[in-house]
Amino acid sequence: xxxxxxxxxxxxxxxxxxxxxxxxxxxxxxxxxxxxxxxxxxxxxxxxxxxxxxxxxxxxxxxxxxxxxxxxxxxxxxxxxxxxxxxxxxxxxxxxxxxxxxxxxxxxxxxxxxxxxxxxxxxxxxxxxxxxxxxxxxxxxxxxxxxxxxxxxxxxxxxxxxxxxxxxxxxxxxxxxxxxxxxxxxxxxxxxxxxxxxxxxxxxxxxxxxxxxxxxxx
Length: 218
Description:
Layout: H1 4-16, H2 29-37, E1 44-48, H3 49-57, E2 67-72, E3 74-79, H4 90-99, E4 103-105, H5 108-121, E5 131-133, H6 140-146, E6 151-155, E7 164-169, E8 178-184, H7 191-201, H8 207-212, E9 215-217
Parallel strand pairs: 4-5, 4-6
Antiparallel strand pairs: 1-8, 2-8, 2-9, 3-6, 3-7
């Protein structure tokens, strides 16, 4: 889901210079990997790099077809009008997390990373009842905007919208950069066209588009 807006724009640009037409479906990473493993007919798969590598090992993505598409950092958001915490340092983020009444993050690699990080900050389990894991497909920002959570963490590319303020990215010493990669599915009926699309997505010419979506070239 973190790449859905970016991929949508990349596909629009791709179709302007190509005879190929692309149908994009964005779902949660866990669901996407499950569908690929089940052998669903697909041409291109874009997921976290580690997941793509696992699918290559499982003979579901063509070996040698992986390209790194974009990198994405974790950001922090609060509800509009509420105080912005100091997230300039790991200590500042830790203090904000321990002081927050309700905390939220997404599923997937970034959520798993944050779960481990927060557990290390509160080994006594005091944060357990304060944490909400956003359901697949539900932006963390929407939970922040509704007031369901006070402090939200998600890929910067997904944070935004009415009712929230993006405080910024996590500081470098506790940041987790996710690399999203693409590969050709073993079930593809047009693998050559799939490779052309992947090459376009990884080309330097589209780096400004990635940065416009809060991501960067891989």
